[in-house]
Amino acid sequence: MRPAIIPGHLQAGYGNRLAPNYVTLPGILSPEECERLIARFETRELEDGGLVGEVSAPDVRRADLVWLDADRVDQWVLTRMMTLVADANREMFDFVLGGFDEALQLTRYRADALGHYDWHADRGGAGFSRFRKLSVVVQLSQPETYEGGDLEINATGIVEAMPRDRGMAILFPSHALHRVTPVTNGTRHSLVTWVHGPNFR
Predict the structure, then answer these.
(1) Neighbouring C-alpha atoms within 13 Å toward the C-beta of 154
(2) How many other β-carbons are positioned within 10 Å of the β-carbon of residue 199?
(3) Which of 7, 28, 113, 120 could crosslink 20 through cysteines, CB 3.0-4.6 Å?
(4) Tens-place pLDDT, residues 85-107
């Protein structure tokens, strides 16, 4: 059974439609699947999280990254993301989308490294990032295992904290301002991806 889509507050969208500031979908990944992805941090090469264009700015972002390959091991993750994005976009956003032009990213924010990501938008700059239209974040960690590390979205001048439920996906337009507040205890893991398409008109 497909999870119900729970929209955030509605705002005027593009054209004559109303589009949500965000959509949450619970239970996209099982606890076992979340653990499988968290384990990638022990078996894959780590990168320091930078900004668009591989710019390092630790005052803005401190995180560890792992990029998933579209191989047989990780293909199931991409397939899952494609399905949820197709359903949510058809029912809620109605964006013209092209596809997943960037690898899926696993992100780790550690309290002992002052993990955080200050206010930013995913869309902009050069390369693939200027074609990002829909951002997807899936919570992998159990919420009681870390403090801080809230995903907050500010799409209309009002800051809204997103749910921390394990396995929940949060989808929002890539131009929306958002941040991950500093993790003050423990470690927060998430799966992040972006869906690309032609410019908004």
Answers:
(1) 13
(2) 9
(3) 7
(4) 999 999 899 999 999 999 999 99
- pLDDT score at 10: 37
User: What is the token pair recorded at 111?
Assistant: 């309290």
Antiparallel, parallel or unpaired: β 183-196 and 146-148 = antiparallel
Residue 161 identity (one-letter amino acid): A
Q: 3-state class of 35 per DSSP?
A: helix
3-state secondary structure of 161: strand
Question: What is the secondary structure of 80-127 as a DSSP string?
Answer: HHHHHHHHHIIIII-----B--S--EEEEEEGGGT-EEEEE-SS-SSG
List the strands of the sheet with 116-120, edge to edge.
61-62, 116-120, 177-180, 151-154, 159-161
| Owner of token pair 């921390």 | 164
Q: What is the pTM of this model?
A: 0.87
